[in-house]
Design a protein that fits this description.
- The chain has 261 residues and is α/β, with parallel strands linked by helices.
- It has one domain: 3-Layer(aba) Sandwich (Rossmann fold), CATH 3.40.50.720.
- The protein is 37% helix and 20% strand.
- The protein has eight helices and 13 strands.
- The strands form four sheets. A seven-stranded parallel sheet has the order 3-2-1-4-5-6-11, with helices on both faces. It has a two-stranded parallel ribbon with strand order 7-10. Strands 8-13 form a two-stranded parallel sheet.
- Helix 3 links the parallel strand 5 and strand 6.
- Helix 2 packs parallel to helix 3 and helix 7 crosses helix 8.
- The longest helix is centred in the middle third of the chain and has 19 residues.
- It starts with a strand and ends with a helix.
């Protein structure tokens, strides 16, 4: 199958591409920045540099493509990230429909029953925008992905690594089902051969529901670190984000979106 992976050089994409090649697919890749080096120099993948905010940049990458993996988000772009993501997804969907692409597989995020944060709403809006042209979309909504490069994981890892104690909002007790990157990759690869999932929204979660406090303590144990976590009722998110801007390499806009989510 001829596949285009959009966001191929991100945390998930750089691991997904070799898996798709090993499964016998013909893979092309795209990224936002031409200067970013691909981590698989021996793999033969056509490469495109796409700005999805501009429709005319997209069609050349879709010639003969049967399936698109959409792994993009714009959370580090600040307050405009939701509108940008919707525009990008809608442009891609309409270009894909015109090019005769069969299906899009979109990696989104698990959302709550009553989502309110910009992060969650943007994930939902992106899925809806990808479906706007009528093209078949399979949406895989994953929990927190445990892997280096996963923003949510890196925020927690950096806090554990740099702070002997952390003052955090009460939301630290919120529970979520984290999932290993290897499991997400397994599901994504298998979905390529499951056209019957077109139109479905599938949740991908690990076997345990853990609070963010529990996750941080597990990370601390793994890295032989000690951290005392103190939840403060009513602590503004902006205060937490100011601290994160000092201790984590994750862009502050992205960290703020994740905390709000």
């Amino acid at each position: 199958m001829k596949i285009l992976v959009i966001g191929a050089l991100g945390t998930v994409g750089r691991k997904l591409v070799p898996e798709l090649l090993a499964a016998g697919h013909q893979v092309a890749i795209s990224s936002r920045y031409a200067s970013k080096i691909a981590p698989w120099p021996d793999s033969v993948c056509r490469r495109f540099t796409l700005n999805l905010l501009y429709y005319d940049s997209i069609p050349p990458a879709l010639d003969g493509v049967e399936l698109i993996y959409y792994l993009m988000h714009a959370m580090s772009d600040g307050q405009t990230h939701t509108s940008k993501e919707v525009i990008a997804a809608r442009n891609l969907a309409h270009a894909a429909a015109s090019a005769g692409v069969n299906r899009i597989i979109y990696l989104g995020s698990l959302v709550s029953a009553r989502p309110k944060s910009d992060h969650m709403l943007a994930r939902i809006a992106t899925g809806e925008a990808l479906s706007s042209s009528g093209i078949a979309v399979t949406e895989l909504r994953a929990g927190i992905i445990i892997a280096p490069g996963s923003a949510a994981f890196e925020v927690m890892r950096d806090m554990v690594g740099h702070m002997p104690f952390a003052l955090v909002p009460n939301a630290i007790e919120t529970q979520a089902p984290p999932i290993a990157l290897v499991n997400v990759l397994h599901y994504l690869v298998k979905l390529a051969d499951m056209p019957e999932t077109a139109g479905m929204i599938l949740d991908a979660a690990g076997p345990q529901w853990l609070s963010y406090r529990q996750l941080m303590l597990k990370i601390a144990k793994k890295f032989n670190k000690n951290i005392k976590i103190i939840a403060i009722p009513g602590l503004p998110i902006r205060v937490a984000c100011t601290v994160l801007g000092v201790v984590t390499s994750v862009p502050q806009n992205l960290a703020k979106s994740l905390i709000a989510g």
